[in-house]
Amino acid sequence: MLDPKKRTQHNRGLGMQSDIRTEVPPSSSETVADHQMDSKSNEVESEHSLPASSSIRRVRKSQGNKLTAMLQVRNERGRYLEEVLRDLSEFVDEIVIVDDASTDGTPDICRSYPKVIRLEILEKPLFAEEWRLRHALWQAAVSTSPDWLLSVDADELYSTEAKEAIRDLINQDHADWVAFRFYDMWGGRTHYRDDELWGLHRRHTASLVRYMPEYPYFYPQQNHHVPRLPLSCSVLPGICTELKVQHLGWAGSLEDRVRKYLRYKRIDPSGEWGSLEHYESILDPEPRLVPWKEEH
User: What range does the record give for the signal peptide (predicted)?
Assistant: First the structure.
């Protein structure tokens, strides 16, 4: 069994700041070059001053914590959303969703799951201003009075081991975030991609955070590749685990990957928010793939 307290002490030196900054997914969690996020994050941090810790009432419960999953979705019919919601319903208490003006009936899928307690449907999409979309999702989620928030994309599945450990990870009173290892599955669910540009699994990605009502949370004002958790979480103590999450955003057909490549080039043609080299690598005909093993 995991010992969260020992892991926190051991990993404090890693720094949540680097963990959040290097995890920079858009709505489907695709990775991009880390340095792009670093420079943008520094600009935003200088605009916000955190109040003294003594002025913040930090509510930390060691038992009975409510776990709320939060998702932003757009046109997910026929992809992975139903599987993800079915899976989440097995181990979270509630689910909050913001639908980014879907046109394919995605909200109907969301409504069919009883644990979806709040569904906000935007009339106009915010995908081109992703920081606003992340902020809208955060506000919707915290309005339900959660104890912990799990930020999930509509194509991510937590391993059996991660799901079994998550209650122990949140029912403690010393760490305020938890990071996992995310794997970019490629062309199916049997292999993940592992090369110079695709190494999300080699670092820790924070996706689970304790909510403290009086703590200041904010996202960087970026139009694309916005981190899933507010940047101000980075100064809080956390836990880095070896628990695994499958990212299925690249697990589809070659045609699906080409469509995503074209979308990236259209949205970010100059590489302002991401890495052009990384975008081009999507079309690599022979990427290095490694067999997937759920447990370590």
Answer: none
